[in-house]
Amino acid sequence: MYIYMLKSIRLTYLSAVLSAISLLLFNIPFCRYVAENAGGGFGGLCITASLILIMLAVNFVAFYLLLFFCRTVGKVLIAVTFILNSVSLYFIKEYGVILDEGMMSNVFNTTYSEAVSYYSVAAILYIVFTGIIPCVLLFLVKVRYGTWSEMGKSVGVSLLIVSMLVLANIPNRAWLSRQSTVLGGLALPWSYIVNSIGLGVNQAMQDRDEVFLPVATVTNDNKDVVVLVIGES
Hints:
The protein is mostly helical. The protein has helices at about 1-5, 10-25, 30-35, 40-70, 70-95, 100-110, 110-115, 120-140, 150-170, 175-180, 180-185, 190-205, and strands at about 10, 140-145. Helix 2 (about 10-25) packs across helix 4 (about 40-70) and helix 4 packs antiparallel against helix 9 (about 150-170).
């Protein structure tokens, strides 16, 4: 019975475990930053707890949907993110980087020789213990995927929790706005995923051909008076 439970697990439990592992292995810098900058007292505790719970719930939904709809491909995608998370965590802890859009631009524009120079034995250990080993265990587990109804309930409850926590933190939106760049750059795997997409979108916008307006032509001899009221706020 123990061996069966070890090799077979419900998707709900597996997604929860993966979400907890992602928090404990890759998002300690995120949690530490929130705890150190949210302020003391009950308010700071509420912000810290809320952001941690939101991260757990969002990652749970992402893992659940990937595995439910993609099965083996979902496992591969999760494995890729775990390995990328381990690499990202190494650079965050060793070099204090924030994976914002500017940093992702540096990543995509670096050369092979420059990138290799940053790696060390510690980086390999990060990748092996926080990336590869969890991925191997993930592929060894047999998943009981459940029904569409179970999927709807699990995802629905998680999104409801996220919505409630977001609404509860509306009074803290000023603090969250000030810290958004750092928080977004530390939350793995969303930091490099979202900022890479944003970088690609901005690059595509810059690469668009410039379209000039047609040359203006005067169709009548009437004289018009135009008054421009320009203000600054």
